[in-house]
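Quick one, tokens below:
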């Protein structure tokens, strides 16, 4: 089964790193968005199997994106990505409905888990 992924982050460098790691583990069908609003619009047009959503407090980002995705598909895996300076406990408080959390930098093995 081909996995379809959506990567959303305001930084093109971060998106490229996540996409590179996804390709290393065999994910080929990847779309990217620069913000939460763009991600939601993409999700309206296309079904994906997993979303990588940036930790961000700006409007249209972060928690609002996760909540919007949860309303659309409660079972969709949503992985919140954040700088290593953010502690997992803080991420869990901010994004309690996320499926998992990934702090950067990360290894391909960590992403695969």
């Amino acid at each position: 089964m081909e996995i379809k992924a959506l990567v959303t982050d305001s930084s093109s460098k971060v998106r490229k790193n996540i996409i590179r790691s996804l390709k290393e583990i065999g994910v080929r069908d990847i779309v990217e968005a620069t913000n939460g609003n763009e991600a939601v619009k993409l999700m309206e047009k296309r079904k994906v199997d997993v979303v990588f959503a940036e930790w961000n407090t700006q409007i249209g980002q972060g928690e609002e994106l996760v909540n919007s995705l949860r309303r659309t598909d409660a079972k969709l895996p949503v992985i919140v990505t954040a700088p290593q300076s953010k502690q997992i406990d803080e991420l869990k408080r901010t994004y309690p409905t996320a499926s998992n959390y990934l702090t950067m930098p990360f290894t391909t093995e960590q992403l695969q888990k």
